[in-house]
Structure formats: structure tokens, C-alpha cells
Write a structure and sequence with these properties.
311 residues, alpha/beta, Rossmann fold, five-stranded parallel beta sheet, three-stranded antiparallel beta sheet, 10 helices
């Protein structure tokens, strides 16, 4: 193992369902990045969405990562961090960057504007509104961040182009939902800074929101970590391999293969090995280097017995 450094990596999966192959690939690559540098590695279970996240998925995610053979130096639940998220909202309110918005998802969709991440872009209908006299806590509506136009060009260690004008390409994001839930963008930025994360390794599907997160970091006076966005596992129709897109869960994988065999499969898909021979994650440290990791996504299909790579 290399000498310890001040670097700090993390893996931050959403606990909205069983871990699937894409989850395990992301966890493995984040773990290899941190451990190869002798960096601290944290697991943060992102469980703040009350519509999607369930307590039982937390334990299931821990079991999945342990099955794969990953370890971490610290673990936390994002839902325990509500106080720090509210403090961040207070700082943004002091800068007059927040406003209430009663627009529904249907209202936003009717505007017909696509965002850079593929979602519907908010057209700015209510951005001239002010917060109620008691501040954002007294708003019964969602609370959005009022973005200023301007191009942001974060650096991606893998050379991916992250340059973007979030105001025009994403639209003002919701930071606190109408039901009181804190939105992902605010939570991830605050948690990364509070936990002193210096390295963010994640899938390329999250690249489109990086510039927005840098805007939030700057508004809150927080440091910007280094970013690297890696390949995804896709279904044949081009959607990210995930539970909602018919991906296989880790427990079904466990019934048909060993953790070492599946790690070998992931290593081959990522380009770290020519063969899919069984291997432990710690054994991959000897061959891990980002210049060996494939840049292109892998299209795969679950046959009911095994994962099959499609041309």
C-alpha cells in the first residue's frame, strides 16, 4: 500500500433500492482510486429523498459493498446532516440567492425546455419572487437557487468537458423541496466540504451537474474537490444500467456467482484486466491506473443467468 496522504475519497450511493452492477462498478472504482493513493475513503449513504429511500436499503447497500470486498474508514447517513444543510440555506438566503417557487413538475415540463442533464429545465417563471418575511423556513413552496448567468469550466481529471452555463443549461435548481426534503445538489456539496473530501470519483451520468455544484461551492465559500467521471454500464437502449431499467440486483448476482468472479468481470469491463478471472479488489491495486480504465461505456444485458456484453 502507498504511504498515507491528505487525500480523501468517498463513495456516495443513493439508498433507493438494491445495489446493481453499475453501483458496484462505481464503488469499486472510487475505492481503487482512494486506496491506490493511500487516501482516506468514506462511505456516505445518501438517504434524504423520502419518496425513494427506505431504511432497509441502507443495510442492503452495506451488505452489498461488504460482499464485493470493499472497506471504508468512515460511514455516515446523509439524513443525519440536516442541520448543516439548513445552515447552508441560511447563508444563501443572506446573499438573496433563494426564492420560493410554486411551479409543479407539470408546469416545468409544459415549458418544453430540456436541461443539459436530460431533465426538464425550469424557465425561471418565479425567479423574481422574494422569500416570505420569516425566510425560507416559512415558505410552503419549494425553494430555488437564483443562478447568475456565466460559464463555469470545472476540470475533470479524465479530460471530460465539464464547461457549462448552469443558468441557461440547467435552470434554477430546487434546493429545498415543497415537502421539506433537501435536494441532492445542496446536500452533496455541503457534505463533501464538511467531510473534507478532496476526490470525487463518480459515473459520467453526473457530469452534467458538476458546474452547478461548483457554483454552489463558490456561493457558500467551500473548496472544490477534484472530479473524475468514469464509464457507465448501459442497457442496449442506451439508458444507465439501474434497477428501474431492469438491471439485476446484487443478491441475484450472489446466487449465481462469487464476489471474486464478479469483481473479475467488473475489472475486465473497466479495462483493468484482459480476462475476467476471479480476483479480490485489493489484488487489483497492483494493476490499477486511470490510464488503463476504458473511457467508453459498456453495453450489457442480463440473461437471467449472467451479464452479457453486447457489441
Amino acid at each position: 500500500m502507498p504511504e498515507p496522504t491528505r487525500e480523501h475519497g468517498r463513495f456516495a450511493p443513493t439508498t433507493s433500492g438494491p445495489a446493481h452492477p453499475g453501483t458496484l462498478l462505481a464503488g469499486l472504482l472510487a475505492w481503487l482510486d482512494a486506496r491506490s493513493l493511500g487516501a482516506r475513503f468514506s462511505l456516505r449513504l445518501e438517504d434524504i429523498d423520502p419518496d425513494r429511500c427506505r431504511p432497509e436499503h441502507v443495510q442492503d447497500m452495506l451488505a452489498a459493498l461488504a460482499w464485493l470486498g470493499l472497506d471504508w474508514d468512515a460511514a455516515s447517513l446523509q439524513s443525519d446532516h440536516r442541520t448543516r444543510f439548513e445552515a447552508a440555506l441560511d447563508r444563501l438566503a443572506e446573499q438573496e440567492l433563494l426564492y420560493p417557487c410554486a411551479c409543479s413538475r407539470a408546469d416545468v415540463q409544459r415549458a418544453g425546455l430540456r436541461a443539459a442533464d436530460g431533465s426538464w429545465r425550469y424557465p425561471g417563471t418565479r425567479r423574481a419572487r422574494a422569500l416570505p418575511r420569516g425566510g425560507w423556513r416559512q415558505s410552503e413552496d419549494a425553494v430555488r437557487l437564483r443562478l447568475a448567468p456565466g460559464r463555469i469550466a470545472p476540470r475533470d481529471e479524465g479530460g471530460l468537458d465539464l464547461a457549462q452555463d448552469p443558468c441557461h443549461e440547467l435552470g434554477d435548481p430546487v434546493l429545498r423541496r415543497r415537502d421539506g426534503a433537501i435536494a441532492y445538489h445542496l446536500a452533496v456539496v455541503v457534505d463533501d466540504a464538511t467531510q473534507a473530501v478532496t476526490r470525487v470519483v463518480r459515473g459520467r451520468d453526473l457530469a452534467a451537474c458538476t458546474a452547478l455544484q461548483v457554483v454552489l461551492q463558490r456561493a457558500l465559500g467551500l473548496p472544490t474537490p477534484s472530479y473524475r467521471h468514469h464509464l457507465l454500464l448501459l442497457e442496449a437502449r442506451g439508458e444507465k444500467l439501474a434497477k428501474l431499467h431492469a438491471a439485476v440486483g446484487w443478491r441475484e448476482l450472489r446466487e449465481r456467482t462469487s464476489a471474486e468472479a464478479f469483481t473479475g468481470w467488473l475489472a475486465q469491463r473497466a479495462g483493468l484486466r484482459e480476462t475476467a478471472d476471479p480476483v479480490l479488489p485489493r489484488e487489483l491495486l497492483a494493476v490499477f491506473a486511470w490510464d488503463r480504465v476504458r473511457g467508453e461505456d459498456a453495453v450489457v444485458r442480463w440473461t437471467g443467468e449472467a451479464l452479457e456484453v453486447l457489441p
